[in-house]
Amino acid sequence: MSAVNETLIRDVVAEVLARLGQAPAHKSPAPAAPAAAPACGCDRPQAGGRYGVFQDANAACAAAHEGFRQLRKQGVEARAKVVEIVKTLADANATEWGRIELEETKIGRLDHKIEKLKIIKLVPGVEWLNPYARSGDHGITLEEYTPFGVVAAITPSTHSIPTLSGNIVNIVAAGNAVVFNAHPSAAKCAALAVAEYNRAIERETGITNLVTIVEQPTLDSFKAICSHEAVRLLCVTGGPAVVKAAMQTGKRAICAGPGNPPVLVDDTACMKRAAQAIIQGGAYDNNLLCIGEKEVFVLETVADELMAQMEQRGAVRLNGNQLERLTKAVFTFKEGHGGGCPEPVLNKAFIGKDAPVLAQAAGVNVPAGTQLLFAETDKDHLFVKEEQMMPFLPIVRVKSVEEGIQASYVAEHEYKHTSIIHSHDVEHMTAMARALDTTLFVKNGPCMAGLGLGGEGYLSFSIATPTGEGITNPRTFTRVRRCVMVDNLRIY
Ligand code: NAD
Predict the structure, then answer these.
(1) 35 versus 275: which is more confidently predicted?
(2) Which residues have CB under 8 Å from 98's CB, separation 6+?
(3) What pLDDT digit, counting tens, does each position of 368-407 carry?
(4) Which of 58, 240, 247, 351 is deepest in the core (most CB within 10 A)?
(5) In 102-133, which positions are buried (b, 16+ CB within 10 angstroms) versus exposed (e)?
(6) Which atom of ligand 1 is nearest to the CA of 217?
(7) In whole angstroms, what is the distance from residue 178 CA to residue 173 CA?
(8) How far apart are CA 176 and CA 232, in angstroms?
(9) CATH 3.30.230.10: does it fit domain 262-335+342-456?
(10) At CA 133, angle to CA 129 and CA 136, rounded to 5?
(11) Strands 343-346 and 211-214
(12) Which of 492 and 301 is assigned the larger pLDDT?
């Protein structure tokens, strides 16, 4: 029997004996006393396990396992308390943490970094774990959502603290502890948030290390975490490489993978509304969102009107020469696999940068505060095919809705992530929904409407696409267990 299982079984036996009024055979250590403030008196998270921040991946996993055992003893009330702590702190620290994350990553926009933390309150908590019950002639049956234990979560550079915070809410509401491996370029801000969350969790519940993180994440720490025996489930949020790596670990993985969301605009849509929504979604956090509008296909009969409406709302149109200059600045090529066709490589210096920075690379000055650039391209343009994550949208004219749906399907690469339509024709909506079969399908709104911002629904920053769990919520991080009592219990 593994050491992890042994400690868990010992806990259960001790608890049952205690309830029966017998002396427990083994007494698990009481919850650790709140850690003392760092000796230096500063607020910086300390290495080596202080407030959940660890140098060593194995130590972070072992500590999270201990945190899980402590949480188990305190029940659902403690989970709800942790959820409340995370939501309150994310809101209260949104301005400071947003600034710190932007300073570290240098991608995205401050206003939206702040907003992404303020809306953590929209992530669902313990209320999502209502059991399923049946009673009948043969007794009663209860299906309950129970925790896995320790969940390992891998977070992206594009929204480090928001993803981490949303993951904690979901994962702890489900009764688990969590160990994080953040993106190396967004790891300091992630560690800072983990330390703050743990400080408050310790103070309010006495539970230590419910949330842990590796201070300097690497591929090796990823491997160590994924192979640690206490880690029962993975939640990865990122691009194709990490999804592939997670699926090769042999552990169950919930994968929130890449997207390249197409937008289709037909001739029944309201052009003003479509233009407004495309700018709102495509410019959000400089288009870092995986759900963000990345390319637009528009019926040729309304293309000029759509682009005019976008210009009226402050988006700036690039001409052919400017597009060419921007394309050369943003994409380089490397040799293809096995000597195949050269493959495009994104110049990271432009990811998540402000529109005026892109405009400069295109050889044009645009007013400060410009949110979005766009240009007409063909459907095979690199900006259409690549998930570029910058506030520039390629606009492609199509002759028919069928052609637009087909082009959207190709551009989406079968990620099955997100697609958007602006239309008042239900048949067009249904045709696109069927053809692309994406996890999120938004009609007549910006992408964020799909996450409860301006549309109905709840929020998560981890949208499990290749593995199919969809917008993650507390149930995503549970096992379903059935308890059956066979008896004459029906009273009606
Ligand atoms: P990224 O893939 O570079 O990194 C994501 C995380 O994976 C980081 O923690 C990184 O260190 C780790 N990682 C990367 N390659 C790895 C490997 N081979 N082995 C182990 N770990 C590895 O992505 P990013 O630039 O930080 O984020 C943007 C990407 O994430 C985009 O593709 C975007 O669509 C996607 N994303 C998806 C969602 C979603 O909910 N589906 C949410 C946010 C971002």
Answers:
(1) 275
(2) 110, 113, 114, 116, 117
(3) 999 999 999 999 999 999 999 999 999 999 999 999 999 9
(4) 351
(5) bebbebbbeebbbbbbbbbbbbbbbebbeeee
(6) 11
(7) 11
(8) 10
(9) no
(10) 180
(11) unpaired
(12) 301
Give the 3-state secondary structure of residue 469.
coil
CA distance 288 to 275: 19
Residue 330 in tokens: 């943003």
Token pair in block for residue 182: 């953040």
Question: Ligand 1 site: residues with CB under 6 angstroms?
Answer: 154-158, 182-184, 219, 222, 237-239, 241-242, 245, 256-259, 290, 387, 461-463, 465
Residue-wise pLDDT for 265-280, tens only, equals 999 999 999 999 999 9
Strand duo 418-422 + 150-154: pairing: unpaired
DSSP string computed for 206-250: ----SEEEESS--HHHHHHHHH-TTEEEEEEESSHHHHHHHHTSS
Q: Is-contact 172 82, C-beta < 8 A?
A: yes
Query: For the segment 197-220, what is each residue's pLDDT rounded down to a tens digit?
Result: 999 999 999 999 999 999 999 999
Kindly report, residue by residue over 240-252, the tens digit of the pLDDT.
999 999 999 999 9
HEC string of 16-68?
HHHHCCCCCCCCCCCCCCCCCCCCCCCCCCCCCCECCEECCHHHHHHHHHHHH
Residue with tokens 């007013």: 367
CA distance 84 to 331: 44
Q: What tokens appear for 150 in the block?
A: 């320790």
Take residue 466 and report the two structure tokens written for it: 């290749």
Q: Which of 113, 216, 226, 237 to mutate to test the pocket of ligand 1 (most atoms within 8 A of CB)?
A: 237
Residue nearest to atom 11 of ligand 1 (CA): 183
Q: Does the model's pTM come out above 0.85? A: yes
44-257+472-484 is classed in which CATH architecture?
Answer: 3-Layer(aba) Sandwich (3.40)
Tokens representing residue 327 in the block? 């394309």
CA distance 167 to 150: 13
What amino acid is encoded at 270 in this protein? C
**Strand extents, DSSP E, 13-107:** 53-54
